[in-house]
Amino acid sequence: MRNYDGAETPDNSPKQHSQDMSDKPTATHNEPLSANRPMLPFAADATHDPEDPLRNAYADSEKYDSQSDSDTRVGDISDVQNASKRPTKAETSGRKKLTTTQAVIIFITNEVGIGMLSLPSALNVLGFFPGILCIIVMGMLSLYTAYNLIQYWRKYPYMLNIVDYGRVLGGPWVEGIFAVGFLINMALISASAVVTLTIGLNTVSDHATCTVVFTMVAAIAMWAMCVPHSMRFVSWASWPCTASIIATVLIVMITLGVQGPRSPELPLNLKAIGSPSFTQAVSAFLNICFAYTGNQAFPTVLAEMENPSRDFPRAVTIEKCITTTIYVIVATTVYALSGEQVASPAIGSLQTTMAKVSYAVAFIGLLGTGLIFGMTSARYLHVFFMRHINLLKRNKTERRASIASDPSRGRRSSLAMPETSKKTEWAVWLFAVTLFWVVVWILANAIPVFNSLLNISSSLLLSWFTWGVTVLFWFHLNWHGKWRSTWQKKATAAFNVFIMILVFFMMIPGMYASIDALLTVFADPNQQDWDATLHPTIIKWEMSRPPHTSTPLARCAPPPAQSNGE
Questions:
Q1: Rounded CA gap, 120 and 127, in Å?
Q2: Which has more confidence, 557 or 125?
Q3: Separation of alpha carbons 357 and 339, rounded Å
Q4: How far is CA 108 from CA 153, 324, 423, in A?
Q5: Could you give all domains of the chain from N- to C-terminal order, each with its CATH number?
Q6: Where do Pro residues bias regions lie (predicted)?
C-alpha cells in the first residue's frame, strides 16, 4: 500500500478495510469508507464539501491534517474519529469533544420541553390506553430513525449537519432544499421559544411592560447564550435547563395532587378509550408525533462526539428511553389528576398563583430550548459562510500562483492554503448568531400569521426532517440490489415504507388544518390569537385574545383587567 507521498508502506490493515482508493465507493461496498479516509481538520474549510473524500485523495493530500485537537477554535470540528476503530486514550486526551453523557444531556434538552405538558390533553382525546400506546410506539420509531442517521454517517463520515446529508443524498439542489427547509424550521421553532418566554414574562409580571419589549429581552438572552461556540458549553448549560423543565413538571403534578384542577368539584371523567372525531384524533396524534422531533439537530451533535460510531447509538438509545419514560409518567399522572379538565398545556389546569410559579421556574428551560436550536442553526450558517470565504481565498491564491510559477509543473494541489485568522472566524461566528436571532425576533413579532406559519412548518418540515429523510437515507445506502438480498433486508425496506406512509399521514392532515387556519386569519384578522400556538415540542398555548388587540402594535398595551376575580 502507498501512502500519500508515494512511498511503499507495509499493509497491516485488516483485510476488510482494504480497497482501491482510485475507485469511488458505492453502497455495494462491504468495506467501511472510514478505513482509509483522510482526516478533516477544519469543518469550515471550503475543501470540506460533502462528496466522496477519497475522490481526490492523491491530488489534494496536503490539505488534510489529522492533528486537529479542539472544537474551541471557532468552526473547528476536529477530525471525525475513524468509524472502524476505538480511539485510544492518547488520541483523545487533548481533544475537547463530546462524551456519551454530554451527548445524552444535549439530546434530552433538545427534545424534552414544556411541550410534554400537552400530552395529557392527547390522552383526554384518544383515551388512556391508545394515548400511551401512541407515545411508546412513536418513541420506538423515533429511535429507529435516529439509528438510520448513524448508519448514513458511517458510510459518509465527513458530514457535519443535516444539510450535508442532503448534499450526499442528491447533490447541490437537494442540499439547497435541505438548507432552506432546515433554516426556516429552526427559525420558527426558536421564534416560538421566544414567544413562549414572552408569555411567561407577561404572566409573571402581570403585563408590566410592552410585549414587544419582552420579545426583545427573550431574544437577546437567547442570543447571548449562543455566543459561546463550543458544544461542550451547550452540554454544561443543558443540565440546569433540563432540571428546570423537570422541576416545572413536578410542580404541576404536585399542585394538581394537592389542590386539584381549577374546578375540583367537577368529576374527572377519565376515559380508557376515547371516541374522538377524525380531526380531533389526528390533532392529538400529531401532538404526540411532534414531541419526538429532536432528531433533526442530532447530526450536528453527532459530528462533535469523540467516537460517533460507538457512542451515538448508546447515547440516543439512553435519551429515547428516558424521554419516553418521562412522557408516559407525565401524561398519565397529569391526566389522572385533571381528567377532562386538563388544559393544553397542563399549566393551564393550575390555579393562578401556582401557574405563575410554574412559568417562572420554566424560564431557564425555555432558554435552553433557544440555546439548542439557535446553536444548531448558527453552526450551520458559520460553516456555510466560512466555506465560501475560504473558497474565495483559495481561488485567489491559486490565480496568483499560476501567474508567478512555472506552468509546466502544474501542481496546484501543493499550494499552501492561507489560514483564516481567529478574528475573522469570530467575526463570522458573531455575524451568523446575530443574523439568525434578528430573523427570529422579527418572526416572533409577525402576528397575525406567525401561528399558522409555525403550524405549516411543523406539519411539512418536522415530519420530513425527523422521519421522512431518514427513510431516504436508508434506501440510498441499500438501493443497488441490497434491499432485496435477504428477507431481513426486505422486511426492513417494508418497515421504512411504512414510516414514509406515516410521514404523509402526518403531513397532509396537518397541512390542511394549518392552511385552513391561515386562510381564516387573512379573511378575518380579528380571529388571530394574541399570544401564540407554539411548537408542540415546546409548549402549546391556547389563550384567548384580549379585546382591542386586532393589530400587532396593540400588543404594547396591557390587556384590560379581567372581571372573573382572578
A1: 10
A2: 125
A3: 22
A4: 21, 11, 33
A5: 99-394+418-447+537-556 (1.10.4160.10)
A6: 557-566
Q: How far apart are CA 305 and CA 322, in angstroms?
A: 20
d(CA 131, CA 128): 5
Question: Helix, strand, or coil here: 67?
Answer: coil
What letter would DSSP give residue 339?
Answer: G
Q: Say which DSSP state 127 is in.
A: -
Residue range 85-122, pLDDT digits in tens: 334 444 444 445 888 999 999 999 888 877 787 888 88
CA 551 to chain centre: 32
pTM recorded for the entire structure? 0.71
468 Cβ neighbours under 8 A, 6+ residues apart = 499, 500, 503
Residue 66 CB partners (closer than 8 Å, separation 6+):
38, 39, 41, 79
3-state DSSP call for residue 70? strand
C-alpha 309, offset from chain centre: 19
User: Is residue 233 within 8 Å of 385, Cβ to Cβ?
Assistant: no
Residue 403's contacts (CB-CB under 8 Å, 6 or more residues apart) are: none
What are the tens digits of pLDDT across the range 32-43?
A: 433 333 333 333
Instruction: Output the 3-class SS for 34-50.
Output: HHHCCCCCCCCCCCCCC
Q: Which amino acid is at 417?
A: M
